[in-house]
Design a protein that fits this description.
Blueprint (H helix, E strand, L loop, with lengths): L3 H11 L3 H6 L4 H23 L3 H19 L6 H6 L3 H4 L3 H16 L6 H23 L5 H20 L1 H6 L7 H6 L18 H24 L9 H19 L13 H14 L2
Helix pairs in contact: 1-3, 3-7, 3-8, 4-7, 7-8, 8-9, 9-12, 9-13, 12-13, 13-14
Amino acid sequence: MTTPQQYVQEKAAGSGSSFYYAFLFLPPPRRAAITAFYAFCREVDDVVDELRDASVAATKLAWWQQEVGRAFAGNATHPVTQALMPHAPVYGITAEHLLAVIEGCRMDLEQTRYLDITGLLRYCHLVAGVVGEVAARIFGHTRPQTIAYAHRLGRALQLTNILRDVGDDARRGRIYLPVSELQQFDVKAHELLKRDAPWGYSERFTALMRFQAQRAHATYDEALALLPEADRAAQKPGLMMANIYRSLLREIEAAGFQVLHQRTSLTPIRKLWIALMTHWRGR
């Protein structure tokens, strides 16, 4: 019989995410906590990504909301919440943190376009900023400013994801690039569906993507400027994620933003190498 701890470990390792490589360097108690939290995020996110019927997905998200309430009342029923709850009081993880992640996933069911950057950043706050805050608590911090750093870093990672997945998201009916910015660069929504290169790749589209990449880079710089020196060592896993994702961003830039017909990724060995180098250098 699979234990809750084995369940979350398999969920995290099986995702192939860059985050998993950063977790490897944590001491066992913190690694167990972040693995359980990451598995929770994956479970909720998979509801939206894997269920085609929006009403069924909404019902499942409502179930997860109820499960959070049960879990914090001491009655967790799912392996993920069973694995996570022992760590919640240790690292200051609250029901509000988990409910925010669920709310962000619900936005994916209810909203497929964002009029401007303000709306998009609200989404980023829920699905990535809050996740960064919880991760920073688990990694360890002594300064309140470290939580602000982690929130901003979560935003940078999400902006990178959005840029990488423009084509895939468009085919799912979702466009995260703000409508106001599509208009600013005269890029039409239907152009994002042209997956046969070179169709869809115009100077207008490249200019739009360059604008998005510059925003992401600026957000990484803002995040790193917020990180207090006193917490740098504890926050190494976050720095590993920053370096892995920023390498991915640079790869996308170097390839000329070919994100409509393919999904750029780094190999597992390269992710591990970046994590190792960050561990050794401490930045």
